[in-house]
Structure formats: C-alpha cells, structure tokens
C-alpha cells in the first residue's frame, strides 16, 4: 500500500516475530513493531464490537449493488442516516441501475432528491449515471482511479465505494473514522479540519493485510465513531478499545473552542431551499409570483434564484417562468 513503508531491517525483524492475534493475517510488507502491536491491539476488539452492534443499513446488506453503495455515499454527505434511509430506498426503487437514472432528465433527479439538502449532489449523481452508462457499460467501476474520474467523486467517496462495494483495501477517512483515530492514537478530542498525507498513511498502516478484513475494519471503525465515540457525547465506558485510548488516558482534554455551526434561518441557503421546494412540487413551470409567495424579500430571492440558475438546478424560461432542468 502506498502509505505503508518498509521499516529498517531491525524493526522489520521485530515485527515479523511479534505475537499475532488469532486469525490476524500476515502483513504484505513488514511493519514497524509499534504499529504492528497497535494494529493487533485494536483489530479484534473493534471487529467483535461491530459484530454485536452494527446497524442494519440497506447499503451494507449482502449482495447490494455498487450503485446502491455509491448512492448511499453521496446521500450521506452532510445528511443524517435516519433521513437517508427512506430517500435511498425510494431512489433505488425508482432507478435500480445507473442507466435508469441516465434516461431521465436531470430535473427528475432534483425532484426525487426532495429535502435531503445540498441538491447539487442530485445533479452529480445524474451526471455519474450518464458517464457510467456510456463509458462503463452501465457498471460502477471498481478502480479507485476510475471512480475519481466521475463527477462529484472525491478522495473519500472513491475509497469508500472501492472498499464497501468491491472489498478493496484502502483507508476510508470520514469524520467518524478520523475522530476515533485522533482520540485513540493521538490523544486529541478532534482531528484537524482536513486529513493530512501523514494521517492517511497512518490509517493505511493500520489496515489488515487481507482486503476483506480491511474492509470490515474500515466500516467497524466508522460505526464505532457514529455510535460510541461520538463528537458531543462519547460513551467511553462502552468503547471496546477504551483501555488503549490515549485521549481517555489523558483525562479527555478538551480541544480549542470549535467554530459554531452556521445559522440557517433567514440565509440564502434557506431561501434557495424554499424556492426549489416550489419547483419540485409543481409538474409545470412556475411564475415569479408563486416564488415570491414563499420568500417575500425580493433582493434575496433574486440572488438565491440567480445562484440556483448558475448551479444548473433551475432553468429560466423565455416567458419569465422557471422550471427544473429538462
């Protein structure tokens, strides 16, 4: 793996003779002794915890399609799982394969997206479906590099689909995983705002050698962060690796004050959502008067509408009405 470097010969020799937990695969390349001990210390407790506590989420079930996994990953960006589950089900019921979505106009993707927020994700999914249909014979590509070439697919999403849909061996660094590793190994309450190259290499160094076990480890750490090692109220007494947690051992030191979340009421984002809701709910184009009824501030409404048009979420028509993109 790119982030796993050969240790010096003495460290490599120590790693090769380190005690391995039952069922722990032999690493593909030597690990330094400290990282090897760390990896084995965490692996079995976290996997055992996951077996007992994993949520039954539709995109994790055996036999789900890579398309289902991709849709879930896009929907889960900045949207809680509880809201994604019904939306994901409805999306797959309507478009069980990329070709089905690609055959529809992009406005239908926006309409189906409903109130999940950040509706440009719907457009990106529609564009993904078109490219997958024309360039990949309708099949989600398995290669991380090919996934990165799809619109709106960044480093995290490409790794997540490669791991969770195809069982590959990559570090999957979402907010939950990064928080668990920051507390467990670095003694910090929260990770840095963005993952560094060093953080990625370290996460890769903890991956078991077997791709299948590595994939399960990745989803298990993610679930641990979502359910137990949470941002606001971590339940350390229920954590399977609490005995090894650097942050807990240090007395759970608080991080520097975090920037408060952005307000929503009265913002351009709320205005955009109101205008888009009118368009989603109408089978025909909408005139400016109907849009004005849901947001009376004319200047803010015009600004928000210009932004929706610029983002490709709304089409202005020659007669002055507005519609979802056709």
Topology:
Layout: H1 9-16, H2 33-53, H3 66-75, H4 81-94, H5 98-102, H6 106-113, H7 120-135, H8 144-148, H9 155-164, H10 175-186, H11 197-205, H12 211-227, H13 246-249, H14 268-280, H15 288-294, H16 298-310, E1 315-316, E2 322-323
Antiparallel strand pairs: 1-2
Task: Explain this structure.
With about 325 residues, this protein is mostly helical. It folds into three domains: about 10-55 and about 170-250, Endonuclease Iii, domain 2 (Orthogonal Bundle); about 65-165, Hypothetical protein, domain 2 (Endonuclease III, domain 1), CATH 1.10.340.30; about 270-325, Arc Repressor Mutant, subunit A (Orthogonal Bundle), CATH 1.10.10. About 55% of the residues lie in helices and about 0% in strands. The chain has helices spanning about 10-15, 35-55, 65-75, 80-95, 100, 105-115, 120-135, 145-150, 155-165, 175-185, 195-205, 210-225, 245-250, 270-280, 290-295, 300-310, and strands at about 315, 320-325. It has a two-stranded antiparallel ribbon. α3 crosses α4 and α3 runs antiparallel to α9 (about 155-165). The chain is globular and about 65 Å long.
């Amino acid at each position: 793996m790119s982030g796993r470097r050969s240790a010096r010969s003495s460290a490599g020799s120590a790693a090769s003779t380190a005690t391995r937990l039952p069922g722990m695969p032999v690493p593909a390349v030597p690990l330094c002794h400290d990282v090897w001990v760390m990896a084995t210390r965490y692996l079995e407790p976290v996997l055992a915890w996951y077996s007992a506590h994993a949520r039954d989420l539709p995109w994790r079930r055996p036999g789900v399609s890579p398309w289902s996994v991709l849709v879930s990953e896009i929907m889960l960006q900045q949207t809680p799982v509880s809201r994604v589950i019904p939306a994901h089900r409805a999306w797959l019921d309507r478009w069980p394969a990329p070709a089905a979505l690609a055959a529809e106009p992009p406005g239908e993707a926006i309409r189906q997206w409903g109130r999940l927020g950040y509706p440009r994700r719907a457009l990106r999914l529609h564009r993904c479906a078109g490219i997958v249909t024309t360039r990949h014979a309708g099949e989600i590509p398995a290669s991380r590099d090919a996934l990165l070439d799809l619109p709106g697919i960044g480093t995290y999403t490409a790794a997540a689909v490669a791991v969770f849909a195809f069982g590959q061996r990559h570090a999957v660094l979402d907010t939950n995983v990064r928080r668990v590793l920051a507390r467990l190994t670095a003694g910090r309450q929260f990770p840095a705002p963005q993952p560094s190259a060093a953080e990625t290499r370290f996460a890769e160094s903890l991956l078991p050698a077997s791709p299948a076990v590595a994939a399960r480890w990745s989803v298990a750490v993610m679930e641990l962060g979502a359910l137990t090692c949470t941002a606001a109220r971590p339940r350390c007494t229920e954590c399977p690796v609490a005995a090894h947690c650097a942050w807990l051992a240090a007395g759970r030191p608080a991080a520097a004050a975090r920037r408060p979340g952005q307000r929503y009421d009265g913002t351009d984002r709320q205005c955009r959502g109101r205008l888009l809701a009118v368009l989603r709910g109408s089978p025909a184009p909408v005139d400016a008067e109907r849009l004005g009824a849901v947001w009376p501030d004319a200047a803010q409404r015009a600004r928000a509408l210009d932004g929706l048009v610029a983002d490709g979420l709304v089409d202005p028509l020659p007669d002055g009405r507005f519609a979802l993109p056709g």
